[in-house]
Amino acid sequence: MNTPHHQINIHHTPDARHNPSDRLPDDRLRDGRHNPDSRVDGRHNTGGHLMNVRHNPDGRIDDGHQVTGNHNAFYNKHHVKESLTTRVTKLICGIFLGILFTVGLATFILWLSLRPHRPRFYIQEFSISNLANPNGFSTARITFNVTARNPNLDIGIYYDTMNLTIYHQDQTIAESPILFPFYQSPRNAHLIYGTLSGPTLRIDRVRWGQLFDARKRGVVPFRIDVASSIRFKVSTWDSRHHKMHANCEIGVGSNGVILRSDEKKKCPVYFT
User: Fold this and answer.
1) Which 3 state secondary structure label does DSSP give 90?
2) DSSP 117-162
3) Is it the case that residue 22 has pLDDT exceeding 60?
4) Sorted alphabetically, which PANTHER family does this protein's record hold (predicted)?
Protein backbone atom coordinates (compact mmCIF):
# COMPACT_ATOMS: atom_id res chain seq x y z
CA MET A 1 0.00 0.00 0.00
CA ASN A 2 1.38 3.16 -1.01
CA THR A 3 1.79 5.75 1.69
CA PRO A 4 0.70 9.19 0.85
CA HIS A 5 3.44 11.50 -0.24
CA HIS A 6 3.60 14.79 1.51
CA GLN A 7 5.14 17.67 -0.27
CA ILE A 8 7.65 19.56 1.76
CA ASN A 9 8.13 23.15 0.77
CA ILE A 10 11.70 24.23 1.10
CA HIS A 11 12.36 27.94 1.17
CA HIS A 12 15.74 28.92 -0.06
CA THR A 13 17.49 32.04 1.00
CA PRO A 14 19.29 33.97 -1.71
CA ASP A 15 22.58 32.60 -0.59
CA ALA A 16 21.24 29.10 -0.29
CA ARG A 17 19.91 29.11 -3.81
CA HIS A 18 23.12 30.11 -5.37
CA ASN A 19 25.45 28.33 -2.99
CA PRO A 20 24.16 24.86 -2.16
CA SER A 21 27.26 23.97 -0.28
CA ASP A 22 26.39 26.57 2.45
CA ARG A 23 29.55 28.44 1.72
CA LEU A 24 29.61 32.08 0.93
CA PRO A 25 30.64 32.85 -2.64
CA ASP A 26 33.73 34.75 -3.44
CA ASP A 27 31.59 37.79 -4.09
CA ARG A 28 30.50 38.00 -0.49
CA LEU A 29 28.46 40.81 0.86
CA ARG A 30 30.01 43.43 3.10
CA ASP A 31 27.22 45.14 4.99
CA GLY A 32 24.95 44.63 2.00
CA ARG A 33 27.57 45.87 -0.50
CA HIS A 34 29.70 43.79 -2.84
CA ASN A 35 33.38 43.68 -2.09
CA PRO A 36 35.08 44.67 -5.33
CA ASP A 37 38.19 42.62 -4.78
CA SER A 38 36.10 39.47 -4.01
CA ARG A 39 37.92 38.96 -0.71
CA VAL A 40 36.40 38.52 2.69
CA ASP A 41 35.78 41.87 4.30
CA GLY A 42 34.24 40.62 7.50
CA ARG A 43 34.45 38.06 10.26
CA HIS A 44 31.78 35.88 11.86
CA ASN A 45 31.32 36.23 15.55
CA THR A 46 30.14 33.41 17.74
CA GLY A 47 26.53 34.18 16.93
CA GLY A 48 27.09 33.69 13.24
CA HIS A 49 26.70 37.34 12.38
CA LEU A 50 29.07 39.17 10.15
CA MET A 51 31.15 41.77 11.96
CA ASN A 52 31.85 45.11 10.30
CA VAL A 53 35.59 45.32 9.87
CA ARG A 54 37.92 46.99 7.40
CA HIS A 55 39.92 45.26 4.75
CA ASN A 56 43.42 46.45 3.92
CA PRO A 57 44.57 46.60 0.29
CA ASP A 58 47.14 43.91 1.02
CA GLY A 59 44.44 41.41 1.91
CA ARG A 60 44.75 41.53 5.68
CA ILE A 61 41.80 42.12 7.90
CA ASP A 62 41.97 45.37 9.86
CA ASP A 63 39.74 45.68 12.90
CA GLY A 64 40.43 49.40 13.49
CA HIS A 65 43.41 49.22 15.89
CA GLN A 66 45.87 50.15 13.19
CA VAL A 67 43.82 53.23 12.26
CA THR A 68 43.77 54.27 15.91
CA GLY A 69 47.52 53.81 16.08
CA ASN A 70 48.01 55.95 12.99
CA HIS A 71 45.77 58.62 14.51
CA ASN A 72 47.75 58.60 17.75
CA ALA A 73 51.02 58.83 15.85
CA PHE A 74 49.73 61.80 13.86
CA TYR A 75 48.47 63.49 17.05
CA ASN A 76 51.77 62.94 18.84
CA LYS A 77 53.69 64.32 15.87
CA HIS A 78 51.45 67.39 15.74
CA HIS A 79 51.72 67.84 19.52
CA VAL A 80 55.52 67.61 19.45
CA LYS A 81 55.66 70.13 16.59
CA GLU A 82 53.35 72.50 18.46
CA SER A 83 55.35 72.14 21.68
CA LEU A 84 58.60 72.86 19.84
CA THR A 85 57.10 75.99 18.26
CA THR A 86 55.86 77.14 21.67
CA ARG A 87 59.27 76.63 23.25
CA VAL A 88 61.02 78.53 20.45
CA THR A 89 58.50 81.39 20.75
CA LYS A 90 58.99 81.56 24.52
CA LEU A 91 62.76 81.52 24.07
CA ILE A 92 62.66 84.40 21.58
CA CYS A 93 60.32 86.40 23.84
CA GLY A 94 62.58 85.73 26.83
CA ILE A 95 65.68 86.91 24.94
CA PHE A 96 63.87 90.03 23.73
CA LEU A 97 62.59 90.88 27.22
CA GLY A 98 66.07 90.26 28.65
CA ILE A 99 67.65 92.65 26.16
CA LEU A 100 64.93 95.22 26.79
CA PHE A 101 65.42 94.98 30.56
CA THR A 102 69.21 95.30 30.23
CA VAL A 103 68.95 98.36 27.97
CA GLY A 104 66.36 99.93 30.28
CA LEU A 105 68.49 99.32 33.36
CA ALA A 106 71.60 100.73 31.68
CA THR A 107 69.63 103.80 30.55
CA PHE A 108 68.25 104.32 34.05
CA ILE A 109 71.72 104.07 35.62
CA LEU A 110 73.11 106.47 33.02
CA TRP A 111 70.23 108.86 33.68
CA LEU A 112 70.89 108.73 37.42
CA SER A 113 74.58 109.44 36.91
CA LEU A 114 73.95 112.29 34.45
CA ARG A 115 70.74 113.69 35.91
CA PRO A 116 71.32 117.40 36.56
CA HIS A 117 70.70 118.70 40.07
CA ARG A 118 69.45 122.21 40.62
CA PRO A 119 71.91 124.76 41.91
CA ARG A 120 71.69 125.53 45.61
CA PHE A 121 71.50 128.99 47.10
CA TYR A 122 72.23 130.02 50.69
CA ILE A 123 71.76 133.38 52.40
CA GLN A 124 74.98 134.25 54.22
CA GLU A 125 74.46 137.91 55.13
CA PHE A 126 71.74 140.52 54.78
CA SER A 127 71.34 143.96 56.38
CA ILE A 128 69.60 147.30 55.84
CA SER A 129 71.10 150.52 57.21
CA ASN A 130 69.39 153.42 59.02
CA LEU A 131 66.42 151.23 59.92
CA ALA A 132 66.21 152.93 63.35
CA ASN A 133 65.91 156.36 61.71
CA PRO A 134 62.29 157.25 60.75
CA ASN A 135 63.63 159.47 57.96
CA GLY A 136 66.54 157.29 56.86
CA PHE A 137 65.03 156.12 53.57
CA SER A 138 67.03 158.64 51.53
CA THR A 139 70.36 157.21 52.71
CA ALA A 140 69.33 153.58 53.19
CA ARG A 141 71.51 150.79 51.82
CA ILE A 142 70.95 147.07 51.55
CA THR A 143 73.93 144.73 51.76
CA PHE A 144 73.63 141.05 50.80
CA ASN A 145 75.83 137.98 50.50
CA VAL A 146 74.47 134.86 48.76
CA THR A 147 76.31 131.65 47.95
CA ALA A 148 75.42 129.69 44.78
CA ARG A 149 76.62 126.07 44.72
CA ASN A 150 76.74 123.60 41.87
CA PRO A 151 76.18 120.18 43.49
CA ASN A 152 76.67 118.18 40.27
CA LEU A 153 79.70 115.94 39.96
CA ASP A 154 80.23 116.09 36.18
CA ILE A 155 77.78 118.76 35.06
CA GLY A 156 78.55 122.46 34.73
CA ILE A 157 76.03 125.30 34.75
CA TYR A 158 75.85 128.33 32.48
CA TYR A 159 74.13 131.36 34.01
CA ASP A 160 72.72 134.20 32.00
CA THR A 161 72.44 137.62 33.63
CA MET A 162 71.41 137.19 37.26
CA ASN A 163 68.88 139.55 38.82
CA LEU A 164 68.13 140.20 42.49
CA THR A 165 64.72 141.38 43.69
CA ILE A 166 63.86 142.15 47.33
CA TYR A 167 60.27 142.18 48.54
CA HIS A 168 58.55 143.40 51.68
CA GLN A 169 54.94 142.26 52.04
CA ASP A 170 54.92 141.44 48.32
CA GLN A 171 56.01 144.99 47.45
CA THR A 172 59.25 145.43 45.54
CA ILE A 173 61.70 147.60 47.49
CA ALA A 174 64.85 146.80 45.48
CA GLU A 175 65.71 145.33 42.08
CA SER A 176 68.96 145.14 40.17
CA PRO A 177 71.13 142.88 37.98
CA ILE A 178 73.91 141.54 40.14
CA LEU A 179 75.93 139.26 37.85
CA PHE A 180 76.56 139.04 34.15
CA PRO A 181 76.66 135.69 32.31
CA PHE A 182 79.16 133.23 33.74
CA TYR A 183 79.97 129.53 33.88
CA GLN A 184 80.07 127.52 37.10
CA SER A 185 82.13 124.33 37.02
CA PRO A 186 80.99 121.12 38.78
CA ARG A 187 81.30 120.98 42.55
CA ASN A 188 81.97 124.66 42.75
CA ALA A 189 80.58 127.56 44.82
CA HIS A 190 80.18 131.16 43.72
CA LEU A 191 79.76 134.14 46.06
CA ILE A 192 77.15 136.70 45.04
CA TYR A 193 77.40 139.86 47.11
CA GLY A 194 76.85 143.56 46.72
CA THR A 195 75.21 146.71 47.99
CA LEU A 196 72.00 148.26 46.70
CA SER A 197 71.40 151.97 47.21
CA GLY A 198 70.14 155.08 45.48
CA PRO A 199 68.04 154.45 42.33
CA THR A 200 68.11 150.65 42.78
CA LEU A 201 66.02 151.06 45.94
CA ARG A 202 62.30 151.62 45.50
CA ILE A 203 61.72 152.99 48.95
CA ASP A 204 59.71 156.11 49.49
CA ARG A 205 58.51 157.68 52.73
CA VAL A 206 55.40 155.47 52.87
CA ARG A 207 57.26 152.18 52.42
CA TRP A 208 59.99 153.27 54.79
CA GLY A 209 57.29 153.94 57.36
CA GLN A 210 56.05 150.37 56.91
CA LEU A 211 59.56 149.03 57.50
CA PHE A 212 59.97 151.24 60.56
CA ASP A 213 56.66 150.05 62.04
CA ALA A 214 57.62 146.38 61.47
CA ARG A 215 60.94 147.06 63.26
CA LYS A 216 59.02 148.23 66.33
CA ARG A 217 57.31 144.79 66.40
CA GLY A 218 60.75 143.14 66.53
CA VAL A 219 61.13 141.58 63.05
CA VAL A 220 61.08 143.07 59.55
CA PRO A 221 60.20 140.34 57.01
CA PHE A 222 61.87 140.26 53.61
CA ARG A 223 61.73 137.93 50.63
CA ILE A 224 64.75 137.62 48.35
CA ASP A 225 64.42 136.34 44.79
CA VAL A 226 67.49 135.46 42.69
CA ALA A 227 66.50 134.83 39.07
CA SER A 228 68.47 133.73 36.03
CA SER A 229 68.22 131.58 32.93
CA ILE A 230 70.53 128.58 33.16
CA ARG A 231 71.78 125.71 30.98
CA PHE A 232 73.39 122.47 32.07
CA LYS A 233 76.58 121.33 30.35
CA VAL A 234 77.31 117.58 30.13
CA SER A 235 80.60 116.99 28.32
CA THR A 236 79.96 118.51 24.88
CA TRP A 237 76.18 118.55 25.27
CA ASP A 238 74.24 121.60 26.51
CA SER A 239 70.67 121.43 27.74
CA ARG A 240 67.95 123.88 26.83
CA HIS A 241 67.45 127.04 28.89
CA HIS A 242 65.61 126.88 32.20
CA LYS A 243 64.24 129.94 33.94
CA MET A 244 65.44 129.53 37.52
CA HIS A 245 64.28 131.24 40.72
CA ALA A 246 65.84 130.97 44.19
CA ASN A 247 63.36 132.29 46.74
CA CYS A 248 64.19 132.86 50.38
CA GLU A 249 62.20 134.42 53.19
CA ILE A 250 64.24 135.96 55.97
CA GLY A 251 63.75 138.23 58.92
CA VAL A 252 65.73 141.32 59.98
CA GLY A 253 65.96 142.36 63.60
CA SER A 254 65.60 145.83 65.08
CA ASN A 255 69.29 146.46 64.45
CA GLY A 256 68.76 145.99 60.70
CA VAL A 257 70.76 142.72 60.53
CA ILE A 258 69.46 139.31 59.49
CA LEU A 259 68.29 137.14 62.36
CA ARG A 260 70.79 134.54 63.48
CA SER A 261 68.21 131.81 62.86
CA ASP A 262 68.09 132.78 59.17
CA GLU A 263 71.83 132.93 58.58
CA LYS A 264 73.07 130.37 56.04
CA LYS A 265 69.48 129.54 55.25
CA LYS A 266 68.91 127.39 52.16
CA CYS A 267 66.64 128.96 49.57
CA PRO A 268 64.15 126.84 47.66
CA VAL A 269 64.91 126.70 43.92
CA TYR A 270 62.27 126.18 41.23
CA PHE A 271 61.98 126.51 37.47
CA THR A 272 59.39 128.43 35.45
Assistant:
1) helix
2) PPPEEEEEEEEETTTT-TTGGGG-EEEEEEEEEE--SSEEEEE--E
3) no
4) LATE EMBRYOGENESIS ABUNDANT (LEA) HYDROXYPROLINE-RICH GLYCOPROTEIN FAMILY, OS05G0367900 PROTEIN
